[in-house]
């Protein structure tokens, strides 16, 4: 009897562990067939994708439904990032997130606009009390859009746990049809150490493979010796979409035994930047190809790994044979495998990896600093993932900080001593990053006495630049002295040539108005339904200030019947 009870207990415990997420609690946020343009855990620039990007049929304005009962716990409106975003906290402790919205439902929109007018700000970050904005399951809470850093109309949807860690929404029963098998597009093999080699070389080697009739890929046999590691470039496809999406898990076995496995089912936002050591970042910089490494280097602090043996590195011995199998899987269990035959053969390394040595060798676990003339660059501990030979030059007013092939985990500080500039001119100086074509991009510039400094995680060329040109303000859908009685919206274009718009302000008849800013289109939009205007004749005043306080004021008269 005791054994039966223990067997039952462990069986139930195992079942509960496998089904730890409620699968019938949440409903889908859109009432259309769900097709994805982005999957959870997908590899993005410096981070994993934290939700599902759901296509909205190439349009905006679709009803967005609350996935479950709860209360609006957070509302954020930003020019970039998630744009207009809504957070709903549910009784079971999870929070659902809806981003890139066009606008909120009427009751939420009224709450937000009241706060925007009180604070006189379009961008806003609100945390309503639990009883202020209650919502029911399936209630329309917003309308889909393309705001913030979105590259096209879609709904970004997340589910987060009580610690604000994102979890793959598909664990909660959000059903996405997917019968397509992941595509392995490239494979590479690395050698570690002077004596390690692949085909008599210790440079990175491309794998050549062919597809078998059963869909499995088989690579040409390689001859190797010493410590080696593998990586693949892989994407997943979704039904009804052409997008190159991310996979769910990656596994590598050697002679039938798993030595490496990772699954992107949940993670913390604090660790997401370590994606830069999950991939071959230099190859991504040079070829725009993301190779996912099937080994874990010391600097990699991601929590997504399991079943690691020797951290996925393979120690090949002379005279032995190995069968390496790398398997990529999507959430629905569709898999693609690459099999790599390895023959252990020790020999001379004929082609050696060239290491470019420079006067600056930076160790990752110490503070590093460069000072030359009027320039200082400081890198905190653990800015770099690995020890590096660093390229530095300062010539013709250009500070060259290696290149973007090296990812950084922390901000460095770049400081210019600008004491040689006249005080008035110094006020209009900025620090700018310069691309290969010579175009300047403003880097958030701070000032302390006669010094200018900036914080950045992006290496490359930097310089001081003078910004003396005021922003531009151009009416987009009206003219001065025009009757606008039948107009719902008043629109203006706003832009700046260099340092960028720091702030703007709109007024009608001396009173602040809400101008919604679409940073991608440089467009300001006012809704005449916001406030009731008195009289027929009105004065519009829009002020724009850039990041060195160059200011432009646009004033126009318009007429509108009550």
Task: Provide an overview of this structure.
- The protein has 562 residues and is mainly beta.
- The protein has 4 domains: 36-172, Glucose Permease (Domain IIA) (Distorted Sandwich), CATH 2.70.70; 183-344, no CATH class; 360-466, Sandwich (Chondroitinase Ac, Chain A, domain 3); 472-559, Immunoglobulin-like.
- 8% of the residues lie in helices and 43% in strands.
- It contains 5 helices and 47 strands.
- The strands form 9 sheets. Strands 15, 16, 17, 18, 19, 20, 21, 22, 23, 24, 25 and 26 form a 12-stranded mixed β-sheet that branches.
Number of domains: 4
Structural class by helix and strand composition: mainly beta
Q: Report Rg.
A: 28 Å
Q: Tally the helices: what do you get?
A: 5
Strand content: 35-45%
- Please provide the count of β strands: 47
| Percent range of helical residues | under 10%
In one word, what is the shape? globular
Note the main sheet: 12 strands, mixed
Q: Spans with pLDDT under 50 lasting ≥5 residues?
A: 1-19
Mean pLDDT: 94
- Compute the separation of the termini in Å: 84 Å
């Amino acid at each position: 009897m005791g054994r039966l009870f223990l067997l039952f207990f462990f069986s139930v415990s195992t079942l509960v562990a496998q089904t730890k997420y409620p699968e019938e609690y949440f409903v889908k946020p859109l009432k259309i067939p769900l097709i994805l343009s982005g999957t959870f855990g997908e590899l993005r620039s410096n981070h994993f994708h934290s939700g599902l990007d759901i296509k909205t049929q190439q349009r905006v304005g679709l009803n967005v439904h609350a996935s479950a009962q709860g209360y609006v716990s957070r509302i954020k409106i930003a020019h970039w990032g998630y744009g207009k975003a809504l957070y709903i906290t549910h009784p079971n402790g999870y929070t659902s997130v809806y981003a890139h919205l066009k606008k909120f439902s009427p009751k939420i929109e009224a709450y937000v606009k009241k706060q925007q007018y009180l604070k006189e700000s379009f961008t806003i970050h609100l945390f309503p009390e639990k009883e202020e904005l209650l919502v029911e399951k399936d209630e329309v809470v917003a309308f889909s859009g393309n705001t913030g850093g979105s590259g096209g109309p879609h709904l970004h949807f997340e589910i987060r746990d009580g610690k604000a860690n994102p979890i793959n929404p598909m664990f909660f029963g959000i059903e996405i049809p997917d019968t397509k098998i992941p595509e392995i597009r490239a494979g590479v093999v690395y050698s570690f150490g002077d004596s390690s080699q692949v085909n008599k070389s210790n440079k990175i080697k491309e794998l050549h493979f062919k597809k078998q009739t059963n869909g499995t890929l088989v690579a040409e046999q390689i001859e190797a010796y010493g410590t080696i590691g593998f990586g693949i470039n892989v994407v997943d496809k979704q039904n009804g979409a052409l997008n190159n999406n991310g996979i769910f898990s990656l596994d590598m076995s050697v002679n039938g035994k798993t030595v490496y496995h990772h699954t992107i089912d949940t993670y913390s936002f604090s660790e997401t930047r370590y994606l830069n050591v999950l991939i071959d970042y230099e190859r991504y910089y040079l070829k725009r190809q993301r190779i996912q490494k099937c080994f874990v280097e010391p600097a990699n602090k991601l929590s997504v790994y399991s079943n690691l043996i020797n951290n996925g590195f393979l120690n090949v011995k002379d005279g032995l044979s190995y069968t390496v199998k790398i398997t990529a899987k999507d959430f629905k269990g569709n898999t693609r495998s690459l099999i790599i035959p390895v023959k252990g053969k020790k020999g001379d390394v004929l082609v050696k990896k060239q290491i470019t040595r420079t006067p600056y060798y930076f160790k990752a676990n110490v503070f590093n600093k460069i000072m030359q003339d009027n320039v200082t660059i400081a890198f905190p501990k653990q800015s770099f993932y690995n020890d590096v030979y660093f390229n530095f030059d300062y010539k013709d007013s250009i500070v060259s900080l290696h290149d973007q092939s090296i990812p950084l985990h922390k901000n460095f500080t770049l400081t210019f001593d600008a004491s040689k500039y006249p005080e008035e001119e110094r006020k209009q100086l900025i620090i700018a990053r310069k691309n290969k074509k010579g175009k300047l991009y403003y880097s958030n510039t701070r000032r302390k006495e006669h010094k200018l400094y900036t914080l950045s995680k992006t290496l490359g060329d930097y310089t001081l630049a003078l910004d003396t040109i005021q922003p531009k303000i151009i009416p987009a859908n009206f003219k001065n002295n025009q009757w606008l009685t039948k107009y719902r919206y008043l629109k203006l274009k706003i832009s700046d040539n260099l340092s960028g718009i720091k702030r703007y302000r709109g007024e009608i008849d001396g009173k602040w108005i809400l101008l919604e800013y679409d940073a991608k289109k440089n467009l300001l939009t006012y809704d005449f339904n916001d406030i009731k205007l008195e009289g027929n004749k009105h004065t519009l005043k829009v002020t724009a200030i850039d990041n060195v306080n160059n200011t432009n004021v646009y004033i126009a008269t318009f007429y509108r019947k009550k």
